[in-house]
Automatic annotation (TrEMBL), chain A:
<feature type="domain" description="DNA polymerase delta subunit OB-fold">
    <location>
        <begin position="35"/>
        <end position="167"/>
    </location>
</feature>
<dbReference type="GO" id="GO:0003887">
    <property type="term" value="F:DNA-directed DNA polymerase activity"/>
</dbReference>
<comment type="similarity">
    <text>Belongs to the DNA polymerase delta/II small subunit family.</text>
</comment>
<keyword id="KW-0808">Transferase</keyword>
<keyword id="KW-0235">DNA replication</keyword>
<protein>
    <recommendedName>
        <fullName>DNA-directed DNA polymerase</fullName>
        <ecNumber>2.7.7.7</ecNumber>
    </recommendedName>
</protein>
<dbReference type="GO" id="GO:0006281">
    <property type="term" value="P:DNA repair"/>
</dbReference>
<dbReference type="Pfam" id="PF18018">
    <property type="entry name" value="DNA_pol_D_N"/>
</dbReference>
<dbReference type="GO" id="GO:0043625">
    <property type="term" value="C:delta DNA polymerase complex"/>
</dbReference>
Automatic annotation (TrEMBL), chain B:
<feature type="compositionally biased region" description="Acidic residues">
    <location>
        <begin position="258"/>
        <end position="270"/>
    </location>
</feature>
<protein>
    <recommendedName>
        <fullName>DNA polymerase delta subunit 3</fullName>
    </recommendedName>
</protein>
<feature type="compositionally biased region" description="Basic residues">
    <location>
        <begin position="405"/>
        <end position="420"/>
    </location>
</feature>
<keyword id="KW-0539">Nucleus</keyword>
<feature type="compositionally biased region" description="Acidic residues">
    <location>
        <begin position="312"/>
        <end position="331"/>
    </location>
</feature>
<dbReference type="GO" id="GO:0043625">
    <property type="term" value="C:delta DNA polymerase complex"/>
</dbReference>
<feature type="compositionally biased region" description="Low complexity">
    <location>
        <begin position="213"/>
        <end position="238"/>
    </location>
</feature>
<dbReference type="GO" id="GO:1904161">
    <property type="term" value="P:DNA synthesis involved in UV-damage excision repair"/>
</dbReference>
<dbReference type="GO" id="GO:0006271">
    <property type="term" value="P:DNA strand elongation involved in DNA replication"/>
</dbReference>
Amino acid sequence: METETASMDRRQATFDNLGSLQEDFHVRARDYKLQYAHLYFMRLMLMRPNVLRHAQLKWGSLESRPKHVEKVLDVQQGEISYLVGTVYMEMKMKPNILNDITKDHWITAQPDRPKYTDDDDSVYLEDESGRVKLTGTKISKELFVTGVIMGVLGSEDVGGDFKVVDYCYTLPPEQEPLHHMETDEADKYVALVSGLGIGSNDFKPLELDLLTEYLTGELGGNKEQTDCANIVRVIFAGNSLITPDVIEDDTKAKKYGYDRSKFVTEPTAIFDGFLRDVCSSVPVDIMPGDCDPSSVTMPQQPIHQALLPSAREYSTFQSVTNPYWSSIDNVTLLGTSGQTIDDIFRYVKTDDRLEMAISSLRWGHMAPTAPDTLWCYPFKDKDPFIMSRLPHIYFIGNQDKFATELVIGEDERRTRVVMLPPFSTSGTIALVNLRTLECNSVTFSTASDEQK
Amino acid sequence: MTTDIESQTVDLLVATVEDDKKNVTYRWLSRSMGYSVNTAKQLMESYLSTSGKGKVHGTYYIMRRDPKTQHQVVSLVSQERLSEIKQDPTVVGYHIYSLEPSQLKDIAILSAANLDATRLQQGKDINIYRTVQNKHVVVSKSNNRPTGSVATSGTASTLAGKPTPAAKQPAATSPAPAAVASTPSVTTPPAAGTNSKTKSTAKPSMLGFFGKPSTAAPKPVAATPTLSTTTAPSAQSSKLNFKRKAESISQTKVNDRAEEDSDEAVDSEEERDRRLAMSSRLDQDQGDVVGSGRNDKGSLKKRQRSSRILVTDDDDDDDDDVAEAEDDESVETMSKEARIALNKEKEAQRLALENMMLMDDNHAVEVEDEDSKMIDIEEVESDKQTSAGHASVAATTTNGDSVPRRRRGHRAVTKQRTTRNARGYMVTEDYVEMESFSEDEVEPVKMPVAAPAAPAPLAKPLAEPAAGSAGTGPKKKAGGKGNQSLLNFFKKA
């Protein structure tokens, strides 16, 4: 096994922050007096033209000449028409604030259900004027979540319900064409990691060390180190820090409120040291996750630099929002730390998270269930979760297992969807080739069954 | 590599693994010896196959690639499986990872060696050890980059641009602390006053955090902009004020005219730092400094000088040099009864001061500001008054005279001394000593009803006290707490 001591330089890639797309996620002035209706309204206003156009393309030339009905309530019985509106799922099991209030005080809160689905859930289509219930076989097969802007073709039946024959979503948004010049240089990669879980019970320090050595190019022989030099960026998609479970000391007097003495600083220190090692070699982006010290509402704000004193000295370190848009060498990336898909997971019967991610691409919206069940900031005049651009790489962190698929759309639109499992449990990271959009996984295992 | 390094490495490995029974990873070795990780791996391998064979146990890193899915798996295996590893077609790479005295039951403890490695590498250029180097990484202590900003890596120019604004920041931050110190200083002295009696040592440290002398300095800045235009005596007296302001708890009437050499050339920033350092020293032995004020006059002078500089830039203190000589006066001129009476008066005033401090919180800040200011003046003036009354004051307390003249004389000053008494307790006690003073007397001050030139009165605080308030001292106390302070305020006008 040859190990030479020649040094090589890490490849560089141009990074663009995608200005306004990313800026939309930064919430500067936090005004919580607003109602969420604004968010829904904006979503409808912004997405309806596209959906309408798609609907017209799709159904405009049908024999029955369906008409576009502007208002949901204006639907006439018996006429084939198509509507555009927001989907609303009526689910019994969905946490409902009104139910909580009207219930008796001494009944304990219901435990969190993994799924809200029930057999008698119903789907409604809603716009500014009103709601109409959707029925039909098509509805029962497809997965729907609240908040998707959809167009439906059908007619109203006797009962007042709208029988759906076909449906459509928005036109796929524009995508930057990927033109890569033929070069002799090796391909560049971006490494995607999620769920480091420093501080959790599953955390394995040696695996973190192996990851450090891998990303910095210390591990491996000449070939592996050359490969590593091709990694141009590392993105940590959430849940890097987890508050360790503190064993309750019953002998001590119960203190109400936050007991500062119980705070454990080691996870942050370990994370800081780890980042310092990695940042000294490769540009790094840190996204917050649901366990990280960041805001609870989506879009999560960047983890504050004060928590990572030695990492922040590096120019290669960047703390970003969740979700996160970026562009590396003109390849657009969009990623979330997983809360969006986790929430969609609760609405649908299937367990296939990859399918949900691909659906969200099709819907053109990365977090449709916000603000219904996904906590979200009440935006007033914009909806930053709309995918106004189609990313080349769409990654979701903290999912159950590693899964990936290349979604090919029309006009040569290609998107690589990557589901990342948490590193603390699986030890897996993903490497995506920026030129071909191929995706590999690298697993670090220190399981003892390797040893005799 | 030279055999010298080889032999050194072997020695180190023998010492660490065989003798000390510690685990060694290639990273640790490279950090200890200062060469690249690849060299470390090679040397470890050679050691394992030659002299270490049988004595130490090696763990190997292997990488497997699944031919179908191209997924790679990195794992650590024991050396026993090396032969099978070599034949495994899916293995695309392996090398030695660590050396242990014997086979490990739980390889997770190797991370301890890696921690050691991280510790060893601190302060050194990481590129010594690595083969993959990134020249575009810029490390800067105050790299305050806004998150989510547009950045294009690979362009060294933008990155080079960053260190320079970063370099400017440290310069910018040092005036900042002074500025920061000034704003809290206005509020902390009143707050400090409340705890005067009880936490005389604790409170000073809080003040000291903001920089005691700097509390002295900004106070004038904040309160009396016209101070800078006043004449020397007022400057001195104002300094006396602020000195007292900062140490109102301790009631030290240190002779801060001591610093009156007009050495304007002192760099204020440097001074500030020195001040801060000194103030922290003051915190620790606050009483001592005061008690040994005589010994430490030099530093105090400097401190006060700098605080003065901050305040009164364009003051010329020509009498300052004169005054300096009269520092060390004794209290002997005062009779014993006078001293006792003096002390009593001071006690009463201190009580009044405290009461004032404990006033309503709402307007505590502003009011107390004035109050404290007032109290200072009041104290000073009462000092003057007492000294005028008791000591042989040469100053003629002229009421209608508007000729500036020099008032000289002795006055009683209360100082504090903190000592350890026989039982080992720290005791802070006040003692009165006489000091001489020499000030210009400017405008006479009647009962000022108009408070328009509020700064102006402050400008000539100490001149008046004796002048207008000879009889009003007691009256002031009697007049009730709030009135007392208000009256004080107007008196100076």
